[in-house]
Amino acid sequence: xxxxxxxxxxxxxDKVCTDLYNTFVKYKQSLRSNDLKQSLRSNDLKQSLRSNDLKQSLxxxxxxxxxxxxxxxxxxxxxxxxxxLCFEDVLEAIEEKKILDDLRHSGQKxxxxxxxxxxxxxxxxxxxxxLDPKKKTVFLKTVYPSRVLTEKYMKGGMKx
Length: 160
Prior knowledge:
About 45% of the residues lie in helices and about 25% in strands. The protein is α+β, with helices and mostly antiparallel strands and about 160 residues long. About 15% of the residues have low confidence.
């Protein structure tokens, strides 16, 4: 009778993390070396992006206070791989009017930033951004889920 070989779960997690990191590095290198359109035609990136996301990200979006919304495509790929949420989801939330609030950044380190509070799939996400009135653009920095903001806005917490 053969004995079954036990697999250490930490080794499996380490392998998944390593594969994810290697995938990100490969995407980052391909984005730097090629034009954005050419790199998005590659099979690896097509599989990781939904087909309509490419169309949305290449079009300028005039949806928030008349400002054009911009973001880093590299950061977008990283967010999609790590958090299963990307800037296109933020654009959809803005179009669907699921903006809960627009706050000043509370940190002293980021006085030039504001935070857009959006609802997505019954959870609240914070989207730090920088507003450039001269260029009429909003640059999205990142997207992260916020437990504190979810309790405040979704579970009947106190609003300011």
